[in-house]
């Protein structure tokens, strides 16, 4: 027995021609047409493709009254409703069609339509979510590239921007400790002095959660303003929580608490960027707090400016200035003011590779002499525009020197303290591996620091897993 779909249609000329081609001349002359449900689906779909959106929606909505799980009718509503100013209806229909889909191709189709409806509704974060779902079932590389381009466009239109990253990094020095329990100052061993167990380099795993959300509350062709919140939490798992007491002759065991090395950063910022005739200008105001070992450590306020200028088509001059005020909980530290100036050049080669170099200086003036120093740094990076085989690659490195003119450790130290360090990093991506718009990577980093005070001589190395968005 055939099931029929009943509808009353007042057909415009194009729709009438469409129905004429499908059902024959007699159908056009009637106001009530008995049409098999399968043919009604065809009429609705072809009406939508022919631009007769209202007709397509009328048929599809009637089909859904007969069967709320009619996937074809749901797709017609998902595609058509946003065209007539009803994106919420289209989004809901698309989401239901996705749940009813039985193949990856069907899920891809439904996810893209749902994303389009959400974007028309100006729910850009939800649209991004559905585009990521589409990427999990994308049928081919051409559609993958198309969906990634669409997702990048939605991201630019979205006033909200949210990023969440988690890294788990094994390291030979999770606490920034030194290798030797003996304390040396300017090459001389200090007798009867041994560093504490938690001052020595401890192996383990460092886990970092980084969450940042930003809302753009003003935008024009020339400038934009936004407010952002960031949280970064670091937790440490030690390879050995029970260590030997480093003091000579001691056989005691010391139990270390990993929570003593945990930290939490909370940051609220106001952001302003402006496009100029040559380059850009940016300003930031940050307010935040930093907790260490489960206790408040310091609060801060930061004001920073940046200026980028194009010197040539391939070379950009990068300038920045920053002033930070820190208020420590410890009465012995109290307040610190730091000023940082940086300048650099970024050069894009003809093949797209980019070379960047920076020189920077920081002046720190604190109530405590141990927080008063002068720092110079020189760093550079090189990133390849095209993958090298199956990987994308970027390398960086630099040197840094810090001079504390007056430093106290059990009393003033002649000549103060001077640290010199070498640091490096390698970022490896795997562009051929991607899921839901995320691609994995490896971050290798390390540093070698030498100081006239052995407590600050250290060697660190870590390898971490990263997950990066491709748009």
Describe the structure.
There is one protein chain. This protein has 471 residues and is an alpha+beta fold. Helix content is 24%, strand content 46%. It has nine helices and 20 strands. The strands form four sheets. The chain has a 14-stranded antiparallel sheet, with no helix packed on it. Strand 15 and strand 16 (373-383) form a beta hairpin. Helix 1 runs antiparallel to helix 3 and helix 3 runs antiparallel to helix 4. The longest helix has 17 residues, at 104-120.
Number of DSSP helices?
9
Low-confidence stretches: 1-32
By secondary-structure content and strand pairing, the structural class works out as alpha+beta
**Oligomer designation:** single chain
Q: N-to-C SSE series?
A: EHHEHHHHHHHEEEEEEEEEEEEEEEEEE
| Cα Rg | 31 Å
- Biggest sheet strand order reads 3-6-7-10-11-12-13-14-15-16-17-18-19-20
Search tags:
14-stranded antiparallel β-sheet; two-stranded antiparallel ribbon; 471 residues; elongated; 20 strands; 24% helix; disordered N terminus
In short:
The protein has 471 residues and is an alpha+beta fold.
Write the layout of secondary structure elements.
Blueprint: E1 4-8, H1 13-23, H2 25-28, E2 32-36, H3 37-49, H4 53-66, H5 71-80, H6 87-100, H7 104-120, H8 124-135, H9 141-157, E3 160-171, E4 182-185, E5 188-194, E6 204-219, E7 223-238, E8 242-244, E9 253-255, E10 263-275, E11 280-292, E12 295-310, E13 315-328, E14 335-348, E15 354-366, E16 373-383, E17 392-404, E18 417-429, E19 438-451, E20 458-469
Antiparallel strand pairs: 1-2, 3-6, 4-5, 6-7, 7-10, 8-9, 10-11, 11-12, 12-13, 13-14, 14-15, 15-16, 16-17, 17-18, 18-19, 19-20
Helix pairs in contact: 1-3, 3-4, 3-5, 4-5, 5-6, 6-7, 7-8, 8-9
